[in-house]
Amino acid sequence: MTRPSPMRGVAAVVAERPGPNLPWPQSPPETDGLAPARIAPFDPLPSGRPRTVPRELRNVAGVVEVWQRAAALRPQTGALVAIGSADGGVGRSTLTAALGGLLAAASVGKVLAVDATGQAWGGLEHRAAAGEHSVRDAIDHSPDWAPGADLEPLARPAPDGLWVLAAECGLGGNKPAGLYELGPVISRAREHYALTLLDLAGGDLPETRSAMWVSNVTVLVARPTQDSVQHTLRLLGRLSSSNLAPAVARTVVVLVSTAPAASKNARAAARQLRAVVSDVVHVPFDSQLARVAPVALGQLRRTTRAALVGAAGAVLAHCPADADRPIWEPPEVRS
Fold first, then answer.
1. CA 150 to chain CA centroid, nearest Å
2. Which residues pair with 115 in a beta bridge?
3. Burial 221-250, CB ≥16 within 10 A → b, else e
4. Given the DSSP bridges, would you call strands 251-256 and 279-283 parallel, antiparallel or unpaired?
5. Record: fold of 64-316
6. pLDDT per position as a tens digit, 15-52
7. Residue among 65, 1, 14 nearest 272 (CA)
8. CA 52, 58, 64, 69: dihedral to nearest 10 degrees?
């Protein structure tokens, strides 16, 4: 007798409907509250010439296409990437730093990662150089910004050219900043950075839904386990049933393994998720990602770097670029 799969089918999960009393709006936001405060006339990059591919990535399949796509980004429109998860503790902030580092290495324009979790611990704080400034400082200084000023005096450098706005350190400081408070900061960031990555709190929250709606692309991070995949599918089902189907259609799921033996589970999970979202990428187990330290591409395993290139390509496919045709076409199977 054949044992049934421990994972339920996609259709059964996506068909679920939330109850009548929901803590989030039933319709998507009418305006983009995180849009750039000013949008300059479109002025493409002078040459559109991609940056040099780092030596550790030169033999990775698809890296040239990703570098070309990154070079074609429109810096004046500031692409926004929302990175969330159905649960906490799945490696969302680690993936934000690793993916942000690769995108920063590829992009001609600057790339910024913003801690929008509203939490006073963990997150991006440990993925960048130590510093005294935080997102709270950026919020407090936003009324005094001079025209054209960027956020680098308040951001922290991270490996591979990424800039990070970290959250408050510890529990004794100011109240952690939520996404809505960060509106002016994100708006300014989109004026000066080719890509802005938002590290969002885990779970189904109104702020997270708003960020997903206004972002060019959403990345949902999960573990390749039965529970994590089911929670992610339920989140996608609730989003689809509350008028956020367009955001689901431009969602990329990244499965991050915590053990070497998770590849088989990842393939099964990817098959289910790929029926719902834009693309699914599996990041295999890498001990470097488990360290509470900045993430540098050169320290990662080759398979991890290849997976990050795949995730970057899937993200860039949804970002506005000066290109006559899509340069990146995600493969059907990537595990």
1. 21
2. 199
3. bbbbbeebbbbbbbbbbbbbbbebeebbeb
4. parallel
5. Rossmann fold (3.40.50)
6. 333 333 333 344 444 445 555 554 443 334 334 577 88
7. 14
8. -60
Return the pLDDT at 34: 58
Q: Are 78 and 112 in contact (CB under 8 A)?
A: no
Check: CB of residue 197 under 8 Å from CB of residue 113: yes
Q: What are the tens digits of pLDDT across the range 218-273?
A: 999 999 988 999 999 999 999 998 888 999 999 999 999 988 776 667 777 788 89
d(CA 212, CA 152): 25
Alpha-carbon gap, residue 109 to 194, rounded angstroms: 5
* Contact partners, residue 11, CB within 8 Å, separation at least 6: none
Is pLDDT larger for residue 156 or for residue 171? Answer: 156
Contact by Cβ (8 Å): 330, 313? yes
Q: Which two tokens stand for residue 191?
A: 């004026």
Is the model's pTM score more than 0.85? no
